[in-house]
Design brief:
single chain, mainly alpha, Rna Polymerase Sigma Factor, Chain: A, 0% strand
Length: 260
């Protein structure tokens, strides 16, 4: 067992090297402790995924278990950043838990995909965000049914936007995202992060005022849908609809960024 102070003075790279050599559980615990904050951050970001069937403490516990497993399975020789590798595994674990709940009927899933496709097609055809009436009309459904579908498919948008922010555009494309950012590409990576932040900022500013408020209260103030409804004086389903509509618009801009 190594001295605690000596462990804390080591870099993450050093700790992984020592852990591979010794298998010392205390070294593993030090690595996990350094990344435990990332688990809570991910749990907060994805709380819309699991809030209907469990609470954040349980998700954080699952995330820590996944993080510990990631330490054992991580291979530094593959030139992948551990935080990227662990982050995707933790997010994947949360998504898997949600999928096991069988939370959305097949017909709702189908309508959700149709809405996404229609929204994207109209955006590029019109050169602007389509109105609710335009999307509903194109789908040949009522605006009321469209709003209901937005609320029911809100979770899809949380997951897909989160994946886009992480650079994963489609399920199963993790390998592409995890390719090494070596010393030659690190400066450009930092530049890309700043550019992405600006795109997100400008995208949020382009939302309707009530959509901006929902996004701000949900992601910055970390309020629940129920709390946001109380603050804004509207129903919880309406908050969910606004959130879903906002994420569709943000996703369009992020997709444009990644495919440019």
């Amino acid at each position: 067992m190594m001295d605690d102070n000596l462990l804390k003075s080591k870099t993450v790279e050093d700790l992984f090297k020592l852990y591979r050599e010794s298998g010392d559980i205390y070294i593993k615990q030090e690595i996990v402790m350094r990344y435990s904050g990332m688990v809570k951050t991910i749990a907060i970001q994805l709380r819309g995924v699991y809030v209907s069937f469990t609470d954040m403490d349980d998700i954080i516990n699952e995330g820590i278990i996944t993080l510990m497993q990631a330490v054992d399975k991580f291979d530094p020789d593959k030139n992948v950043k551990f935080e990227s590798y662990a982050s995707l595994r933790i997010r994947g674990a949360i998504v898997d838990l949600a999928r096991k709940q069988d939370w959305v009927p097949r017909n709702v899933r189908k309508l959700g995909k149709a809405i996404d496709q229609t929204f994207s097609e109209l955006y590029f055809q019109l050169g602007r965000y389509p109105t609710d009436e335009e999307v509903a009309g194109h789908l040949e459904i009522t605006v009321e049914k469209y709003y209901k579908a937005l609320g029911e498919t809100n979770l899809f948008n949380i997951l897909s936007l989160d994946a886009l922010v992480d650079g994963v555009q489609e399920e199963g494309h993790n390998e592409k995202f995890l390719k090494d950012h070596n010393s030659e590409t690190m400066p450009s990576l930092s530049l890309e992060q700043k550019e992405l932040q600006n795109i997100l900022k400008n995208s949020v500013e382009g939302l309707r005022e009530n959509e901006q408020m929902v996004v701000s209260l949900y992601y910055r103030k970390e309020l629940s849908m129920k709390q946001i409804a109380k603050v804004m004086g509207i129903s919880e389903p309406r908050v969910s609809q606004l959130h879903s509509a906002a994420l569709k618009k943000l996703k369009i801009n992020l997709q444009s960024y990644y495919t440019a």
